[in-house]
Specification:
Helix 1 runs antiparallel to helix 6 (125-143) and helix 7 crosses helix 10 (201-210). This protein starts with a helix and ends with a helix. A five-stranded antiparallel beta sheet has the order 2-1-5-4-3. It is α+β, with helices and mostly antiparallel strands. Helix content is 48%, strand content 14%. It contains eleven helices and five strands. A hairpin with an 8-residue loop joins strand 1 (13-20) and strand 2 (29-33).
């Protein structure tokens, strides 16, 4: 269906990728596509997913983007430039990528790509956005069978402590803000780290952000109201 949809939208190829962050499939990916076989083999053999600028740019977007805009979204490393050019050498000259993220569970992209003679069908990009989003949602519904949480979520009070830690407050300052003892704050953060199986405060904040327990807006909006922290 995606292959047919890609053609009707004015593209030559499609690729859908879903990365699992939870459950039995944690750390693995689901990928299906109709890219040129030589490119697919090169991509897998050299593990180019680690230097794929399209995937990294997708982490910074809430909606689809043409590949020509990637350098405006993220600063490209030399390795990413080489990966991008290698793809062009194998016949993928341009494309449109739709990203989707479900914090703590999965992230993915649906891409419609163009061959050497293709031109980006600008008038159809909104439709491509809808098709890609629907494809990712359907794939997630099918793939999440047997989903189980990887860890027990922190308690509400632990979440409060993590949030204020993410805002840059010390344990003593958190105790004053929340009206609890210094030792209680230390214990809450210790138990939260154990839940996430990490020993570092910074790693705890990253895990909580990834899990959707706290959000970037929880942190930055507070910083802005405080005059930039």
């Amino acid at each position: 269906m995606l292959a047919r949809g890609a053609r009707e939208l004015g593209f030559d190829h499609f690729a859908l990728n879903l990365d699992f962050a939870h459950g039995p499939e944690e750390g693995t990916s689901l990928l299906f596509h109709d890219y040129p076989s030589a490119w697919a083999e090169t991509y897998v053999a050299f593990d180019l997913g680690k230097t794929d600028p399209i995937r990294r740019a997708g982490d910074q977007r809430m909606h689809g983007f043409p590949w020509s805009n990637v350098s405006d979204i993220i600063p490209l490393t030399s390795s990413e430039v080489r990966t991008f050019r290698t793809g062009q050498h194998h016949g993928l000259v341009d494309g449109y990528t739709i990203p989707r993220h479900l914090p703590g569970q999965a992230s993915g992209t649906c891409t419609f790509a163009l061959g050497p003679d293709g031109r980006l069908p600008v008038a159809m990009l909104d439709v491509a956005e809808l098709v890609g989003a629907a494809a990712l949602a359907a794939t997630w519904r099918l793939a999440r069978h047997g989903f189980v949480p990887r860890w027990r979520r922190p308690t509400d009070r632990q979440r409060d402590c993590i949030l204020w830690a993410a805002r840059g407050k010390t344990d003593w300052e958190i105790s004053r803000i929340l009206g609890i003892s210094h030792g209680t704050v230390i214990q809450h953060l210790k138990e939260a780290r154990e839940r996430y199986n990490t020993r570092k405060r910074a790693s705890l904040v990253v895990c909580a952000l990834f899990d959707g327990l706290i959000s970037f807006s929880d942190i930055f909006r507070w910083w802005y109201t405080q005059g930039g922290g």
